[in-house]
Amino acid sequence: MAFPYNYIWEFPGVYSLTVTYGVYNTFYFSQFIALGVVNFCEFRVMRRYILAYFTLTVVFLLGAMLIFCRGHYFIDIFGGLLFGHYFWMFAERRAWLIDWVLFKIPFKKRYPYVES
Questions:
Q1: What is the pTM of this model?
Q2: Three-state SS for 105?
Q3: Domain boundaries of the chain, sorted by first residue
Q4: How far is CA 66 from CA 7, 13, 35, 92, in A?
């Protein structure tokens, strides 16, 4: 992929140990979008619908801002959505190892809203 036209994030005049300022084709999925998707899924499972839809709105606006400010490509935003949902499913399936095996928390206490 070519570098975004009129990319606005250049060297600010302050050196950094972690950020490489310059023209590089090293774009990756948006971790902020992925974290928002994880929060949305958690709020939805815990039946906190107002917070869930607020988080969904924030994720949508953040994705729009990242595209409009040319911080990410559209595929990076889409990748953040996919990775966020995958990481949430991965953590949900393996959380019982910590909850039950390590802390002995029963299923009904872990998920009080789920009918067993």
A1: 0.70
A2: coil
A3: 31-110
A4: 12, 22, 15, 28
